[in-house]
Amino acid sequence: MSKSISKSTLTQLITLSILIVLVVVLSILAPEFLTYNNMMNVLRQVTFVIITGSAATMLMITGHMDLSVGSLLALSGVVFAVCAMNDIPLFLAGLLGVGVGFAFGVLNGILVTKLKVTHVIATLGSMYVARGLSYIVTDGKSINAGLPRGFDSIGRKMIGTIPIAVIIAVLVLLIFFFLESKTVFGKYAFAIGGNKNAATLSGIKSNRLVLSIYTLVGTMAGLSGVIMASRLGAGDPNVGNGFEFDCIVAIVLGGTSVAGGSGSVIGMAIGALIVGFLSNGLNLLGVGTFYQTVFKGVILVGAVLLDSLIKKKLK
Amino acid sequence: MKSKSLKRWLSVCLAATAIMVMTAGCQGKEEAPADGGASAAQSESPQASDAADAADKTDTASGGKDGKAIIGKVSYNMNEAYHQAECAWFEKYAEEAGYDTIIIDGKVDSSIMLNSVQDLISKNTKAIICQPADVANAEALVQEAQNADVPLATFVNKAETTANPHIRLYEAPATKELGAAAAKKWMEWYPDKKIVMAIIDIPSSQQVHEERALAFVEGVQSVAADAEVAVMLDGESSRDKSMACGEDILQSHPEVNMVYGINANSVLGALAAFEAAGRGQAEDGIPKTELFVGTDGSEQEAIKIYDPNSSLKLTMALSPKNNAKTQIDTAIQLMNGEIDAKSDYEVEVTDVVLDYWNTPIDEFQKFLVDEYFSEMDLKQELGLE
Lengths: 315, 385
Description:
The complex is a heterodimer. Chain A is mostly helical. Chain A has 13 helices and 2 strands. Chain A folds into 2 domains: 1-34 and 278-315, no CATH class; 46-241 and 255-263, no CATH class. Chain A has helices at residues 7-29, 36-61, 69-85, 90-113, 119-138, 153-156, 164-182, 184-194, 196-201, 206-232, 243-253, 265-285, 289-314, and strands at residues 158-159, 162-163. In chain A, strands 1-2 form a two-stranded antiparallel ribbon. The model of chain A has no long low-confidence stretch (mean pLDDT 90). In chain B, strands 2-1-3-4-5-13 form a 6-stranded parallel beta sheet, with helices on both faces. In chain B, strands 7-6-8-11-12-14 form a 6-stranded mixed beta sheet, with helices on both faces. Chain B has 2 domains: 36-164 and 320-350, Rossmann fold (3-Layer(aba) Sandwich), CATH 3.40.50; 172-318 and 353-381, Rossmann fold. Chain B has helices spanning 2-28, 36-42, 46-57, 81-96, 110-122, 135-147, 172-189, 206-223, 239-252, 264-276, 299-305, 320-336, 361-372, 378-381, and strands spanning 70-75, 100-105, 127-130, 152-155, 166-169, 196-201, 228-234, 258-261, 282-283, 286-287, 291-296, 312-317, 346-349, 352-355. Mean pLDDT of chain B is 85; it is low at 26-61. The termini of chain B are far apart. The longest helix of chain B is centred in the N-terminal third of the chain and has 27 residues, at 2-28. Chain B has 14 helices and 14 strands.
């Protein structure tokens, strides 16, 4: 292995290899797996993780985490539905939904950077507040009555043969890939995650940068919520339970360190695809639901172990 | 070096576990339910053999084992005894009729349910039965299936604007009967004590709220017009959350003398809180301070109902066997074209009331064995043998 290949690239190659092996195995076991329609299904299913995970990866690179994204997804979706139901133009309703995510992102950022609340506690608090608000707004029930025509466009419609949601996810991924690898913003994020004190002493405005990434995470969770509501054709306050863990799993599978300082947005996307393909493949194979849960846990730990083993071997 | 070798061993073990789990998972669905064989075999009927013929007629290029067509099912929540039993019967009846099945756990999550329906469509299932998370979710699932030309029938929650075949769980009459029976008993024991109810509900489920919680109250008030509801709390269908609700009721409304739980977890959780506080007791089957009423007809409810010292004395039992049979029959009719997949066809299934006074213990035991594949000996559990 050439020395010019960085640790991050190596991690991505390993994760990509796992994804390829998984696709090959599932294609052999389930003939329906490798069809265009099924691939689009999986892509549509991982859209939300990729959109939110793109920003959350940057956040984890700085050594922070956001546990409120699942609840923000639900709240943004119901706000979008309520606004649309009340004759607010769809585009504006969508913006308001995303805006709710943005506002919570700012709040999380302020709590962590200005008020010095631990990131786990701050975002856990937001998680409860956002979930509670979604129930209050909807009175605990899904909203689908009185939604205007076109509400489901962004979640269900296609451009050509590609779902709009997938196109949005790819665009978001590319933007964050650019931010991470081609801008000072990305380099500073790595520096903060590597050593926050050193980064601050060298003139990086760490708090401001972390606050802006929290805002991005909230905004992306809001965007995911709007797309989710559109896909479901309803504002459902119950969606997104465990979504924060789906994002964390994809990010960690993609080689991002929970402690910060290393990671990649592309790796997260590969991680999201691994989880998506695995879940879809196991369903197609008719694997029992309880076994699936065990299997996913085994794959997660196994992939991370394999990654670490191969890296050591190559050293 | 040591850590390297440990990691290597761990990797090998994880890989082996993954293979075993996958193998076991794939095989698990073919195993007959523990006790279902005998009961299900008895139910072999002309309809079942018609169904088998239908299976032969159905296009078999669907990827099922031995070329069998596949019926898909998205279960509401596989963590609950009722749904586990319903899925086991679903598989059993499908197998008898000559079909394969794929059952996916919807986990009461509308996005998981939509993903599951898409997966089933990818698998070329010939019909799908689904209990959506709620009415709004039903709309999305039906549209997804109809766009892919795969017939889908909903169970419990029906799409409101898109016409689709539906299996209606018509519970209100049984719940009203349950409420009326509970009120009659209470007034028989304590004619001077006004009934004050607490309901452990799931308000987010329209079906449950209307056909169980509200119907129960209506049933009670049909007998005791002055009966009132002190509090209605969300137990989230979880035992621990319902126990917390029970504890809260004891603090805020200690005067409550009738507690209704919309499922087994709800009533057993609340009862556990009352028992911990020294209440929830009965003497010779007559509750001392309050009467508990449940829903589901599970093993654990049965143990409490036939315990003369427990104040849980009635339940409304669902029939996983009958409901699964209706689901399979509907799926077969959809595949045969006997039911239009875009019509408002509706078939009803109902519940039954079981209680301490009118249902002999042997009858409840038979119900558990027939419906839930129960291996529990109720009398032995209660120390009656």
